[in-house]
Amino acid sequence: MKYTLITFLLLYQNVYSQKILWKEGNALSWANFKSKINTQKGQNIVAYTHCGWVYSYVKSSNPMSQIEVKIETIFDEDKSWKDVKRINNYVLGHEQKHFDIAEIFARKLRKEVSEKILTNADFDKYFQEIYNRITKEYRNFQHSYDKETKNGTNEEKQAEYNRIVAEELEKFKNYSIS
């Protein structure tokens, strides 16, 4: 019974949790930030964007068969939070960049997967290392982004990151799925 309940809760969360896929030109709005709970520490935190990517794959038992790997960038509405008393469009732009950064690193992951993982055997041998490395780079970049922009309050650094993010999206545009 205990395992059935856990399975049900996991299925419920996956089915009913609101997730938005990253698409060129689709911007977040404050209505997308639905969590009532601030899980972040710090007084200058006005909002939190819960984003990243998910992947799936289709594999056969033949190690030399071609593999299909799908990587999507997601924003989780139910885990993203805002302080309704302090939000504004400038802060929303900062939060949008978090989602855009997730897309950049999803594109980097798609690029490496497309170049290095052609078969089931390649997937088994290389995917986890590639995934772990890019995930670490992604987390470090997100951390640096918030630290250097002081969570968006340093307007000069924010403008610099806005430019960097736009350039990186353009640089890896061939690995977009939208």
Description of the structure:
This protein has 178 residues and is α+β, with helices and mostly antiparallel strands. The chain has one domain (18-175). It has helices at 2-16, 89-116, 120-149, 155-171; strands at residues 19-21, 47-48, 51-58, 68-76, 81-82. A 3-stranded antiparallel beta sheet has the order 1-4-3, with helices on one face. Strands 2-5 form a two-stranded antiparallel ribbon. α2 (89-116) runs antiparallel to α3 (120-149). The longest helix is centred in the last third of the chain and has 30 residues, at 120-149. It is elongated, with a radius of gyration of 18 Å. InterPro entries: DUF922. This is DUF922 domain-containing protein.
Instruction: Give the terminus-to-terminus CA distance.
Output: 42 Å
The stretches of 5 or more residues where confidence is low (pLDDT under 50) are: 1-15
Q: In what order do the strands lie side by side in the largest sheet? A: 1-4-3
Helical residue percent band = 40-55%
Q: Whole-number average pLDDT?
A: 90
Task: Note the quaternary state here.
Answer: single chain
Shape: elongated
The total beta strand count reads 5
Strand percent estimate: 5-15%
Q: Which structural category fits the helices and strands?
A: alpha+beta
Protein name: DUF922 domain-containing protein
Pfam family, one: DUF922
Organism: Chryseobacterium potabilaquae
InterPro entries: DUF922
